[in-house]
Amino acid sequence: MAIAKAERLMNLALCLLGTRRPLSKRELRESVEAYLEAASDDAFNRMFERDKDDLRELGLVIETVENLDGEVGYLARRDSNRLPPITLDAEEAAALGLAAKVWQQARLAGAASGALQKLRAAGLPEDVDPYGAHSALEPRIPVHEAAFEPLMLACRDRRPVVFDYRKANAVQPESRHVEPWTLECWRGHWYLAGWDRDRGAERVFRLSRITGKVRSRGTRYTTPVPDVVTVRETVASWAGESADRSARIRLRSDAGYPLRAKATAVRELGDGWEELEIPYGHGLDAWLVEFGPDVVVLEPAELRADVVDRLRAVAKG
Question: What is the pTM assigned to this prediction?
Answer without folding.
Answer: 0.47
